[in-house]
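Memo to structure team: turn this sequence into structure tokens by end of day. - J.P.
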Amino acid sequence: LNYNRISNVNNFTFFMLPRLTGLAVIGNRFTTIWRRSYFESNPYLDRLDLSDNMWRCDCVDENMFDFYEFITLEPNKKEESYNLICNSPINVIGQTWLEACYFTWNPTEKAGNMDNVVWFCIVMIVGLALCFVLVNGIRRSMKRRLASIQAERERQAEQVRDRLRQLRIQAEQEALCNTPDPRDLIAPPSYDE
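Reply from structure team:
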């Protein structure tokens, strides 16, 4: 029944076809979403091809959600959800039924998304604050460590200077103690003198 400009079906359209296993109505002019009840007398139906029709997506209509679940949910999946494209109203043209009606069919997730955004912002702010505190703590710790290392180096350098000064003074004192008496340096007068 593809591309036949069919625009309407009802409860009795498939009533006399209990062994119907597949139905392809691609490229027709269906605008009104069908009802699950149209297929109550077709227990063997396992495939529906509904793509390329001019579906009017009235997301608040419970029948649309019911029919969407009937044809797309496992285990009795009959059609791929990406084949169901809205043709009206204007704000949803070209979107799949699920894209167009997602937040209408799942209102808690839309509210949850706002809550999630708020919580995400709060967590990000707290996380950034913690990172800032952590970075500053690490920076202060590094400064203290560098200051202590510098102080230790200066202390060691001062100790080395003190030790060298003490060694120099000790060497000078030893030199003074070991220097010969100037009188010893002058030889006694000889007999010739």
